[in-house]
Design goal:
The protein is of the alpha/beta class. The protein has one domain: Rossmann fold (3-Layer(aba) Sandwich), CATH 3.40.50. The protein has five helices and six strands; from the N terminus they run E-H-E-H-E-E-H-E-H-E-H. A hairpin with a 2-residue loop joins strand 3 and strand 4. Helix 1 crosses helix 5.
Length: 207
């Protein structure tokens, strides 16, 4: 990697930090960001449920809205990581709120039609105790791509435990080898792509 890269992650767990309970999404994001750190990527994580993310599809929904600050962190980072648990087979409601707020990018293009996320890479990390990881990836990837992010090959990692059982990702003694390999692939490909896009941004619409 020829240049310094940064990553910003939003943890879309339904658990608040005030609950003093580490979530499986925490651990998955820690593992993924640790893999990115091996390439020199500096990262930050924010738990979205502890922020006041007002409903809406604008970048600023007015007084008390915490989204503008988080939006700034997303735009400033080279790699955006969305972490979500599976609930009822879908990304969490918090993740959906984040995607809805990112919808504002569609109307914030520059003079070449490029959205704020153009040239940024996105990864999605999913955890749960039910089926739905691929569905969650598909929904999140499509939304993130729609608002300008580029998804690298193997840009998603996940762990899904046995259905209706009590073991969570955070309870595992070690990362299963297939999960570790997927995390390492996602990190490596994201860094490679982010480095290329930082050197040579998409040209956008030529006048």
């Amino acid at each position: 990697m020829a240049q310094a890269l940064s990553a910003f992650a939003l943890n879309c767990s339904l658990k608040s930090a005030s609950d003093n309970e580490r979530s499986s999404t925490d651990k998955m994001l820690d593992d993924l960001l640790s893999a990115l750190a091996r390439f020199g990527v500096k990262s930050e994580v924010v738990r979205a449920v502890d922020e006041n993310l007002k409903p809406g599809v604008l970048s600023d929904m007015g007084d008390g809205d915490d989204w503008p600050r988080l939006r700034g962190k997303i735009v400033d980072a080279d790699i955006f990581v969305l972490g979500t648990p599976i609930w009822l087979g879908h990304p969490s409601s918090v993740a959906q709120r984040v995607l809805e707020r990112l919808d504002a990018f569609l109307g914030e293009t520059d003079d070449r039609g490029r959205m704020p996320a153009t040239g940024k890479v996105a990864l999605v990390a999913v955890v749960g105790n039910e089926d739905g990881a691929h569905h969650c990836h598909a929904a999140c990837f499509q939304a993130l791509n729609d608002v300008g992010f580029t998804i690298p090959a193997g840009g998603g990692c996940y762990w899904v435990g046995e259905a209706m059982q009590a073991t969570d990702y955070k309870d595992l003694d070690k990362i299963p080898d297939p999960v570790r390999s997927t995390i390492e692939t996602a990190a490596s490909n994201a860094v490679h792509l982010a480095d290329l896009l930082k050197k040579d941004r998409y040209p956008g619409i030529q006048s």
